[in-house]
Amino acid sequence: MTKFEDIKGFIFDLDGVITDTAVFHTQAWHQIADEVGVQWNVQLGDALKGISRMDSLELILKHGNKETLFTEAEKLSLATTKNNNYLMLVQQMTSANILPGITDFLADLQSHNYQLALASASKNSPLVLEKLGLSSFFQKAVNPATLKHGKPNPEIFSRGAELLNLNPAQCIGVEDAAVGVESINAANETSIGIGDPEILADANINFEDTTRLTLANIKFSMNR
Ligand code: BG6
Ligand code: MG
Asked: Which of 34, 73, 89, 115 lies in disulfide reach of 9, CB 3.0 to 4.6 Å?
């Protein structure tokens, strides 16, 4: 594994890492699944993490063998309904929705002169960061609208390293989704998975939750 001392930058996923919007996305998609008569389960919810809006809808329809039953216009309308429901949940967000330890970790990274970038698949990420009061930490953010491929393709995390003018080997990516960890690994960066170690088995480093995300713990995990 890369040495801790070689790391110069951190590239963050947003939903489920910085804030628990993963729960809001899941809630809003569950509503759509009910609407179109697709049976929901926890595995489907996990499989949607990190996946773009339209790809998420396709996955849900496929899960219920309904992928051919909707026109493009109907799919767009379903995705818009989901997003409106999601945005209603986001409207109530404040800095209280930042996951435990994240603000201290970001401040610590900044004071140690690490470079920071955001690599979220969400088109709502600028709004969410603003609601949380964290926009100033992320001057560099990959615009998901400019990507050809979604996670698990490495494009988004490779682009993050480019924005920071760093080699991938100098970057750590932080993710809560299995496809996100795959994306970081495929970009040849060091991956930190936050959450269930079984789901995130491919991560170079795993922390059960964000309270474990500290420079000391990362250094320990990389240099042992
Ligand atoms: C990812 C979330 O960050 O963004 C997914 O994990 C979501 O659940 C995706 O579908 C796209 O988000 P949005 O806000 O553009 O619909
Ligand atoms: Mg996520």
From this structure: 115
